[in-house]
Amino acid sequence: MLVPLRFQSSPAPEAPRDAIHLLLDCHRRIRTFCDLAVKVARLADLSLAERAEAAVRVERYFTVALPRHVEDEEVLLAHRMWEAGPSTVVLVALEDMVGQHVEIEALLKSLVPRWRLLGEAPERHGELVRELERDSVRLAGLMETHLWLEELVLFPEARARLSTERLESLGAEMRARRGTKP
To answer: Is residue 3 part of a domain?
Structure first.
């Protein structure tokens, strides 16, 4: 039984307008790539080409896109929240967010070389499967906890404390850093 490892086509979502929309869109992609990482580890009946392609995509996402997202949160959003005079709730959430980023980064340091190896030599899946599955599932769990903190605490606080114009400006700054258009 093959499970599609490509993104399903769906109607193009509305273009993200402000920083919170952009960050939530990133969260959707993070969840998608965590799911793909677990599938790459767990599914025994993938062809070598499918496994290699999926491993390369996962490795690229977590080494290129995720660091940009972390920077958006830790530098851009956190800075704006500080400027707005953060509450104790926000200070604790920002501290937790950064701590979670450190824990996730440490786990990725062990996962990335395995994804890279799997992308180059997918036939080695059998020798990697145990740790790859364990750590991919752990990554998905850490990410979900992390994303919920942001979605339930930080993002609502940002909407309450930052003006619509400020959030749109921050979103424009995030898009400019990536070279994408509004």
So the answer is: no
